[in-house]
Design goal:
Strand order of the largest sheet: 1-2
Number of strands: 4
Structural class: mainly alpha
Radius of gyration: 26 Å
Strand content: under 5%
Largest sheet: 2 strands, antiparallel
Distance between the termini: 54 Å
Shape: globular
Order of helices and strands: HHHHEEHHHHHHEEHHHH
Helix content: 55-70%
Length: 426
């Protein structure tokens, strides 16, 4: 009976008193400690600085290996340059989680890592090369050409420098005209992969960079100049991005840390979800598998795609846990999204950690397959049911993980995260 009275007369009386009071209702409290959340966003900047700094240092090592190749072109120096390129990909692929949600990264990324590319824009290709239909630059062969005419525009290509090469990206409005970045360097070091969905990567000979009687490929002085220019541009691009994440400067990091903390958390979670779903599960895996197209695999000249996918996944995990293992073995760690979520909902945090572990294991399956002789371009071959199952398992793990990221966002009262799907249905 007391309950009924309280629910009736006593409740109405209390509402009347509250309505006459001068006191304002308390504002809803955030589901996280504001100061701690600011530390999480600040540490996100530290992670970005560490991983971009490693990408820069490894790119400089690549530059040194390329200098050695050009000084003495032989199979040993070419192999060393290829190894340096692979090593440079390890930290860079862990940076891509910062692309989505951070304008300065997204606007910059195309010059650094755009793919797939119509390699006929850059250098000689096989007579049977299947270019993208309607691409005016598909057989431009910059290395063999002092000039290029597109429509009514005549371009002077005599001086192969970084500024010129950057201006040729998306030539004629085609996104597959990629003249700069990691994949342009990859093509120059490996050449075309003519194996389709069979075993084998590109087999460019070191003599393509020679200057004496043993030289092959033609136009070797320009090929050497192109490789130097595109590598120098990569270094300059990475130096720019490292500067954007330095503390105590007027840069993007300062802008991020000055913004509302909730916006910073949203960018972190949006970057994780978008790389997980639309980019990695969709553009980089689902598209290549559906089309059975090695041209659509990420590192298609070197057959390094398995590692690119694995380290993309590692980057997502890094941001959630606030951890990154540097190339020298040191670990950067600090306040994390996981800390914030666990303080509010231990089950959601535990579930997402399990999903991150499951997706890492699924991507490790691609690495193990390559170690056993079956690379990504073989896994996507028509009729390879076992390969398709391995890739689809990784896609499904990434989809499940993205759902966990969205749940973690809701725990932090970040509504409608809407990670980018790249128009894919899963």
């Amino acid at each position: 009976m007391l309950t009924r009275v309280a629910a009736g007369g006593l409740l109405l009386s209390s509402l009347w008193i509250a309505g006459c009071s001068d006191e304002q209702p308390a504002a809803p409290t955030a589901p996280y400690d504001e100061a701690q959340a600011r530390q999480v966003v600040s540490h996100y900047g530290e992670l970005a600085l560490a991983v971009y700094s490693d990408a820069l240092s490894e790119a400089r090592a690549l530059q040194s290996a390329i200098d050695a190749l050009l000084a003495q072109p032989d199979e040993a120096t070419l192999a060393a340059a290829r190894d340096a390129w692979r090593a440079a990909r390890v930290p860079y692929m862990q940076t891509e989680v910062f692309r989505f949600g951070n304008r300065v990264v997204d606007e910059w990324e195309g010059q650094v890592n755009a793919w797939p590319l119509d390699e006929g824009l850059i250098d000689y290709v096989d007579d049977d090369y299947q270019a993208v239909m309607g691409n005016p630059g598909a057989r431009a062969n910059i290395i063999a050409s002092e000039s290029l005419t597109i429509g009514e525009q005549r371009l002077d290509l005599s001086d192969l420098n970084g500024e010129l090469l950057a201006s040729l990206n998306e030539l004629g409005g085609s996104e597959v005209n990629v003249a700069t970045g990691y994949h342009a360097i990859e093509f120059l070091l490996w050449g075309q992969d003519l194996n389709g969905t069979e075993a084998g990567a590109g087999q460019r000979p070191a003599t393509d960079f020679a200057t004496g009687a043993e030289a092959t490929g033609g136009h070797n002085a320009r090929r050497r100049a192109y490789l130097q220019a595109v590598t120098n541009l990569l270094i300059a691009d990475l130096e720019f991005m490292v500067a954007q994440w330095q503390p105590g400067a007027e840069n993007y990091r300062a802008e991020l840390e000055a913004d509302a903390v909730k916006n910073g958390l949203r960018k972190m979670l949006f970057g994780m979800g978008s790389l997980s779903l639309g980019e990695l599960a969709g553009e980089r895996m689902k598209v290549a598998l559906a089309a059975h197209s090695p041209e659509d695999e990420h590192d298609c000249f070197s057959d390094n795609t398995h590692f690119s996918h694995f380290y993309n996944g590692k980057g997502i995990r890094n941001v959630y846990l606030g951890e990154y293992q540097r190339v020298n073995g040191d670990t950067v760690s600090g306040p994390s999204l996981s800390d914030l979520v666990a303080a509010r909902d231990t089950a959601a945090d535990r579930a997402l950690k399990q999903e991150l572990t499951a997706s890492e294991a699924a991507l490790q399956g691609l690495v193990d397959s390559a170690a056993n002789g079956t690379h990504f371009d073989q896994l996507i071959a028509p009729g390879n049911a076992e390969g398709a199952a391995l890739i689809n398992g990784a896609i499904e793990a990434l989809v499940q993980q993205t759902g966990g990221i969205e749940k973690a966002a809701l725990v932090l009262d970040i509504q409608a995260l809407n990670p980018d799907t790249a128009d894919h249905q899963f």
